[in-house]
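Listing S7. Sequence submitted for prediction.
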Amino acid sequence: MRKLLVAIVVAAISSRAEGQGALSLQGLGYPTGELSARAEGTGGGVADFDALSLVSPASISAVGSPALFFQYSPEFRRVTAGSNTAKTTTARFPMIAGVLPMGQDWTLGLSSSTFLDRSGETSLVTQQLVGPDLVDVTERNKVLGGIDDGRLALAWAPTSALHIGFGAHVFSGSNRITFSRIFPDSSKYVSTTQTGRMSFAGFAGSLGLEYRPSRVIGFAVSGRKGGDLRAQSGDTAIGSGRIPDHYSASVTYDGITGASISARVAHDAWSSLGTLSSSGTKAFDGWDTGVGAEVTGPRIMQRIIVVRGGARVRTLPFGFNGEKVSEKSFVGGLGIPLTRDRASFDFALQRANRTAGSGVKETGYIFSFGLRVSP
């Protein structure tokens, strides 16, 4: 009975969400990208070199000193379908990380970030025939939760030009699901509410390599090989898929005084998650491309401000009405050193436009606030 109930609830929520929910919250949710505020500010271009992003385990070799990092990234979203507009806000705490150098050659990192965020609520009014009466029924679907990526990383720097890193990932999370059917006249009809909870568990391994043949140019590649991802409710198995394989490559150029230019291209095999969608929401493999720059800005109160900017184009994992959802973002940001360089503050603002070849359009404004502290 529990398995049947959970299957009904999940199918109902997924199908309703695909029909009229936000483009970015289809399927198992929105991929935050696992980027720090600094990497977001460059359109993701510097991600494979950034010690505080969960992209390449080799990058933690560049941290220099023990560090803790926290990030808060609220999103303000507007969805437009024809003449109808809906506004929502999602508060995210997408990343916490700690990095510890061990001697001159080795660095250890432990971090947790949001892999997919599936927090949202949809409401749809339909007319249904109940006995002889045609009644307006409100179907309300609420999902809270997501999937997190916990990573233990170890990096080795045999020379200043070559860094190699290894990562072990544990993916876990849950979706708390509430499906309600509400009738306007409670004296004649009884409203119903069904609840369910799905939990997820999976594993993956990652490898990264960073090479700088000279002071002005650097190359980095990384990859993650996914294992099984299982979904269950209590002791009942709901479905299974695989953590998407991920591959990326980045290049950075520092040959211009006071500036650093970076670019990155990545591929995610999101279709491996398609079997976890009970309503048939289609998952698409996608490319993620970004380019950006960091420039030395003004000096304020004896501190040099870093100014960042970039652009990013990517395909989101889950489709809308069978069509791919594409996201194009323009980003700007700042980096501010604090307390004699023992701490730093990073800020990024993204404007993301999302489309799916239909009449539905979505615009998201994501503010990212990152704080790094060296004890």
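Caption to Listing S7: primary sequence and predicted structure tokens for the chain studied. DSSP finds two helices and 18 strands in the chain. The first strand starts at residue 67 and ends at 72.
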